[in-house]
Design a protein that fits this description.
This protein is an alpha/beta fold and 586 residues long. It has helices spanning 3-20, 29-33, 54-59, 68-77, 101-114, 144-162, 178-191, 204-215, 223-244, 255-260, 263-273, 308-321, 336-348, 385-396, 401-411, 423-426, 434-454, 469-491, 495-514, 524-527, 532-535, 538-562; strands spanning 39-40, 50-52, 84-90, 94-99, 128-132, 166-173, 251-254, 277-280, 283-286, 297-300, 326-332, 356-361, 364-368, 371-373, 419-422. The model is unreliable at 573-586 (pLDDT under 50).
Length: 586
Amino acid sequence: MTVVDRLRAALTSEIVALAKAKQLGELGPEAASAATFTLERPKRPEHGDYATNVAMVLSKPAGMKTGRPIAEALAKALATSDVFASADVAGPGFVNLRIKPAVLCAELDEVLRLGAGYGHAPAATGERIDLEFVSANPTGPLLVSHGRGAVYGDAVARLLEATGHRVVREYYVNDFGNQVRLFAESVRAAAASKPVPEGGYQGAYVRDVAEHARALGALEQSDEALARTCVMLMMRGIRKTLADLGVAFDVWFSESSLHEWGAVSVALEQLRAGGYLVEKDGATFFVGKGDQDDKDRVVRKSDGVFTYFASDIAYHADKISRGYDRLINVLGADHHGYVARIKNSLEALGLPADRFEALLFQLVFIYRNGELVKSSKRAGNIVTIDELTEEIDAAAGRKGAGADALRFYYLSRSANTNVEFDVELAKKESLDNPVFYVQYGHARLCSILAKAADIGIAPSRDWALLTGADELALVRKVADYTQIVAQAAETREPHRVLFFVQELARDFQSYYTLHKNDPVLPPKSVRENADWRATWDLGLTQARLGWISALRVVYASALGLLGISAPERMSRGELGDPAAGEAEER
């Protein structure tokens, strides 16, 4: 149960008591207990911890013209509450609430009790979801543009799992059709040092595939067999790239298998029987009768070759047949029209189109020294995920630094907004680098706890000693975490969690700076005195360490949902200031 849930229960209890006491006009206890109202953070902190519209919601069933009388009665009743420190009426019936510190700090006990499970719903309490993402054509390595879909899809999957859903991650391998044939022809041409076919692929990676194919003896095989080998070689690299990026899949579904099983032909025959297919100029078109898509779509060309759309119809029908409650596809923004046509085809097959959901993400722009980097797979001048992560790893001297940087940048904006990735900034070991700043914040919390253990001070849960406004402000932020995770999952917006952890890092940094003269741990100059434990406020220090322990748990949990590592120790590089507990040495 979240803090908001507990506060909502407390408010409902007060409202029901007022209704029973006939203080709310015509409103009875049953109607009071069933009221649905908001409980949100005010835009201005000075207005309180939370604001509620409960009085306005109840005014009509109470037979009152405004909610103010109810708000005033509620504010008076809350004056003796064990939960609320104050309640002030605002406007026509809003009530601004302040929570007693003990109630807020009780959330720290929940954090420490649940640990990594804090903020998560019980498992398998939601939907069974198939989440398909990446699904890049196996005709080249994964580019930086593909990476955004990979990281966004993975973060959405983590959020859905954290809120109780069962998620199957699926990669749809487009190993059928003209593009795969062209890729194999390009590989064969590269092996023979001949020009690539029209519309084919070129670049160093094509020559690499050609050498591997030669070593496997695949160049002597038929065109179809060579195409399968080329796809296998590319998928081997794609799997490794995704694994290095922290992205794993449960299902790798082959498009060609749909044709081998006859699933495409079966789906099209079902559409034909329903009157959804027509023949025009020797080709077969899907003609939807719903309002999702107003264009006729080719499913079989005049040369008899099935289109990608034909495969997609059978593929989504297959996914629904597997019993999922929801199908989610993560797609580039240029697939906007695809959504309508899939829903239309599902409706034509008599399948529940409302189970299908598409998440679209915008472009990624790479900058080096202020200059935009352009790339093209077919032209051969590409920027791959591997190249970029390896470059950042080398600069940081740590495997995984590049993956952390890409994940951070990809998730730093709403999926509806373009991402600009500054390579040189991402390589810096300084607090100017937003990735470094956030990870350094976690390392700082860890270092303070480690130093405390070294000097023999253990955390406590004596929260009554935490009376500082800045400490309580951070407790309020921790109390928001569960709700933020739930909202991020519901809206499919992992950037909400990243914004949260950025704010947590910033607010603790602010606290840390403000407390230069009142540090969490006794500085070395104090500890040089043999009687320092008798003069230092150990009780407050221990309570602060318990508070920091809770902050660290939530911090690490948020980074985990983003798939970003939470290092326990970092070096501030050019600043020359290791995150090994600076505060305690002041």
